[in-house]
Amino acid sequence: MKETRVTLPELGLIAGTRGMLGAGIGLLLADRLTAEQRKAVGWTLTLVGALATIPLAIGVLGAARRVEEPEQQALSRNASHAY
To answer: Following DSSP, what letter does each residue of 30-41 receive, concatenated?
Structure first.
């Protein structure tokens, strides 16, 4: 099992970039703006969201570490105390 620790600011950045990505895609599909405005805003939000997500994902996934099972933890502690 892998465990990843994410700080609150990192979580906010991840949520924000995913939100921009979703908003960009939504605007590309919506009919609220003129076609030209919609494409400009939609592509901008999509690209910013996608580009900002990449380094965040690498940082979070790169920080992932393997979580030891309780039995393995006990064996590791016992092995370090052996003479």
So the answer is: --SS-HHHHHHH
pLDDT tens per residue across all 83 residues of the chain: 677 778 888 888 888 888 888 888 887 888 877 888 888 888 888 888 888 888 877 877 776 655 555 555 555 655 555 55
Question: Taking the CA of residue 24 as centre, how many other CA atoms within 13 Å lie in the half-sphere pointing to its CB?
Answer: 18
Judge whether 61 and 4 are in contact, CB under 8 Å.
yes
Question: How many angstroms separate the Cα of 81 from the Cα of each of 71, 73, 76, 77, 78?
Answer: 16, 13, 9, 7, 5
